[in-house]
Amino acid sequence: MELRDRVVIITGGKRIGRIVAQRLADRGADLVLSYRGSKAEADETVTDVEARGRRAIAVAADVSKAADCTALVAAAVTAFGRVDALVNMASVYGSKPLDQLTEADFDRDLAINLKSAFLCAQAAIPVMRRTGGGRIVNFADWLARSGRPAYPGFTSYYVAKAGVIALTESLALELARDQILVNAIAPGPILAPPDMDPKEVAAVANATPVGRWGGEGQIATAVVALLETDFITGETLRVDGGRHLA
After folding, report:
1. Catalytic, out of 35, 93, 157, 158
2. Mind listing the domains of the chain with CATH numbers?
3. Predicted confidence (pLDDT) per residue in 57-69, tens digit
């Protein structure tokens, strides 16, 4: 799919999402950016996109709620007349020992990391069908893609990201005849959390076969590839510097 003059919704467009938005604007796309608590950052990304000669809006939305997803897609249609692609980046990441994991914790992880992708896709699909097709890119995790949890304390996160892979495959099958291609990205060590100890940052780099963290640009490259493809669907692409091989 040629990205010029296409309309792309990005959910959770902070940090890595900002770089993805910039890259898509460079390819000629217009952007709709959802945010829940980070309006200032979303507005900064809108400014980035507009500086590249493209259009963008920021829309407040809790994408774990169906009504907000419907409103997000409606805002895109009102502003730009169409929706061609959806990039489901909204995610929460954190660990909690299994014995301390509550029902509320589990529900929150699944709602934001998994259910939001389904709800946003459900809202966007009818609009994509009206224009003859589209693209959906979800976000999983390299561990879920590799079929091994590896680290204790991430039960609800791992379950949610494994579910994203299953959702991606199921949607791809359901939507292929509509020319809506659905794929996922499974990031590995891309961007260290701001509060990570420098020794741990170095340890992760050393444990990665290429010897470094990837950086946001690697995710942007993968997103562009999966939006521009006209034949790949139902795949989950690891972007992990070979971490799954170690």
Report:
1. 157
2. 7-245 (3.40.50.720)
3. 999 999 999 999 9
